[in-house]
Structure formats: C-alpha cells, structure tokens
Design goal:
Function: Plays a role in primary ciliogenesis by modulating actin polymerization.
Largest sheet: 15 strands, antiparallel
Family: Belongs to the CATIP family.
Strand content: 35-45%
Order of helices and strands: EEHHEEEEEEEEHEEEEEEEHHHH
Protein name: Ciliogenesis-associated TTC17-interacting protein
Oligomer: single chain
Pfam family, one: CATIP_N
Number of domains: 2
Keywords: Cell membrane, Cilium biogenesis/degradation, Cytoplasm, Cytoskeleton, Membrane, Nucleus
Number of helices: 7
Number of strands: 17
Distance between the termini: 60 Å
Length: about 350
C-alpha cells in the first residue's frame, strides 16, 4: 500500500505487479522499438485526426534507456485538440521522467494542461501547469513510493502493453500504481480481452486485446480497450464511453523496407565530382564525419525530433501571422528561469501588428 501526500487516500500495488515489471530486462525493452501510426475515427466513421506512437533507444545522462513519444491530434466538432507524451523508461519499465501535454483550442478560452513527472530516489514529483484562457494555475505533488517499481506512467504503459502482447501474457491479478486524471496516485489493472479478428488491406488478422483500468481517486474511473497485431503493433484503441477511436488503416512495414509501389533509390557516387583528387578526398572525409556526428547526436536526442514535431503541429493549428514572435513565446515555456507566457490568439496578434 502506498500513501499519497494529499489527504491519506491509499493506492494499492501488489507483489505480482512488481515481479512482472522486474522480469522486464533491456532485451525485452529492445523488442518494443518501433512506431505505430493510427487514424482517429469519429462515431460516423470520419477520419478526424491521427495517433503516432514511437519507442527508441537513447541515453539520458550516462544511463541507457528508452524514449517514448506518443502524439495524437485532431479536430472534433470544429475544435482542435490533442495530447503528447514524452517519457524516459529504463529496466523494469521504471519511469525516470515524463511530460504530458494536453490541449483543447476553444475559441474563447483555450485549455492547456502540462503534467511533468520526475522520479527522484523513492519519491515521485508531479508538477501540473493548467491554462484556461489567460488564467494559469500551478500545482505540485510529491508521492513516496514504498514499491516504486509498481508505478506505471502513461509512457511506461505503452511499452508494457507491447511486451504483454509479445509474451501473450496479461497479469490479470496484478495491481499496479498509476496517476489518474487529477494526478492522484491510484490503482491500475489489466485484463485480457476475448480473441477477435480484423480485416486490413484484404487480410484477416488475429488480434490480441488488453483492457486497462485506472481507478479514479478524485476523478472518474477510466477504461481503455486496445487490440494489437502480432509483435505488439497497435491495431485499435478506444476509451470506453468516448465517441472516437484509434484505428490502423494500413499494415505496418518493417523499417528500412520500401513500401509497395515505391522503388528504392541508390545513393549517388560523388567520388569523382572534382578533378582534384586531394580536394575530393578531403571533402568526402569531412562530409561523412559531419553526417555521422549529426546522426549520432539526433539518435541520442529523440526529444529533438519530438520537440520540433510538436512545435510544427502547433504552428499549423494556430496559423499565427507573426511566426517568429509565436516561436519566441512557445519556446519560452521551456525555460526554467521565467514563467511561461500565454500564447496570443490570432486576433490579438493581428491587433498588435496593426494598431
């Protein structure tokens, strides 16, 4: 049993959950390195957005870990909305750090919520920043985890469900720890769903289903049903009670393999592009060194790609007149020295540019 810091409500994890997480080593984590691409479909069957979930190996400090980036966005009833999760996960599916960003762009009062989770020893520090229009509130919570390895964050859940599918094993009597929508520590359970099939691109495929339940402490209990293809690729995901669902449209392809109808392109050989062989040799050597250095840096910093993707998505949704000013405000929110400003609306930008 683990006691939270805001009033004595208890969340429960058990030995079976802890043992299951401890059985997951780096080899098992390595098998979860791939990307899911799903469409967001409305109740009427209309495509209204997309979901991308990726896991990649990285280094955080001096520690090898796995970087999870999940991003969904779409437009429902004319209102842009989305969620992004970035997390660093290590052996035992332990969360070192996670940032979750949710937004709903209402015309009059846009809602924006960011939740940052950081593991510090046996403590879990949670910081919430919520913006509703121009109103900004901040809240910090600290939880002492007697069984820290029983905690599963949103990012860790992505890896954990992929491993359950690959093992064909759901620990149904295990009780894990998680955070509910109010960031209160609570109990989470998994259960295996009945077997079913789906048809994608004229192929009938068997699906492995998992139900995830997060009990509500200060919010409603939430359940998700997720079905996977062989290997852990996500096929469908839905929140029980929601009018939208995530659905795989096209079968995934292995990394590095060309898609159907796509021809592979051979690399150009520029060894003799100059008559001066000494200059050519120096150019090629320098070029390869820079390319390798850049690739190594980007590979070890997957958050760079995630950050740029989130920013570009935000720009396209807001379509600001002054992109430079918008970028300045957006990236200022990542500074630890200043308070994040409220991003201006398009109307406010026009008024500022044309007084």
């Amino acid at each position: 049993m683990d006691k939270n810091s805001n009033g004595g409500v208890k969340a429960e994890c058990n030995k079976k959950a802890i043992e299951y997480l401890q059985s997951i080593d780096f080899k098992a984590l390595g098998r979860t390195v791939f990307t899911d691409h799903l469409a967001t479909v409305s109740e009427a069957g209309k495509n209204i957005g997309e979901l991308t979930v990726s896991v990649s190996e990285t280094v955080r400090g001096d520690e090898i870990c796995y970087y999870v980036h999940a991003q969904s966005h779409g437009v429902l009833d004319g209102v842009p909305m989305g969620t992004s999760v970035t997390a660093y996960i290590t052996r035992g599916v332990v969360t070192l750090e996670q940032t979750q960003h949710e937004y709903i762009k209402f015309t009059n009062k846009p809602l924006d919520k960011k939740t940052i989770v950081v593991k510090e020893g046996d403590k879990l520090r949670v910081k919430k920043i919520t913006s509703a229009g121009r109103d900004v509130s901040e809240n910090e919570l600290t939880y002492t985890l007697n069984h820290e390895k029983g905690f599963v964050s949103e990012g860790a859940n992505i890896i954990l469900q992929r491993i359950m599918c690959q093992r064909n094993d759901v620990p149904e009597n295990a009780k894990f720890l998680a955070l509910d929508n109010a960031s209160c520590l609570t109990t989470m359970r998994y259960a295996k769903l009945p077997e079913r099939t789906t048809t994608i691109a004229d192929s009938t495929l068997a699906l492995f289903g998992i139900e995830r339940e997060v009990l509500g402490m200060e919010s409603l209990t939430v359940r998700w049903n997720t079905h996977f293809l062989e290997g852990g690729y996500m096929a469908t995901r839905e929140t029980i009670g929601s009018s939208v669902r995530m659905q795989l449209i096209q079968l995934p392809t292995k990394d590095g393999q060309p898609k159907k109808g796509e021809k592979s392109v051979s690399a150009r050989n520029d060894l003799h592009w100059e008559a001066d062989m000494q200059m050519t040799s120096h150019y090629i050597e320098r070029k390869e060194k820079l390319i390798n250095d850049h690739k190594t840096y980007v590979r070890h910093k997957p958050e760079l790609r995630a950050l740029l993707e989130d920013f570009c998505q935000f720009v396209l949704l807001r379509k600001p007149d002054d992109v430079c000013s918008f970028a300045s405000d957006y990236f200022a929110s990542f500074s630890t020295k200043i308070k994040p400003p409220t991003l201006p609306s398009n109307a406010e930008e026009k008024q500022r540019l044309n007084p």
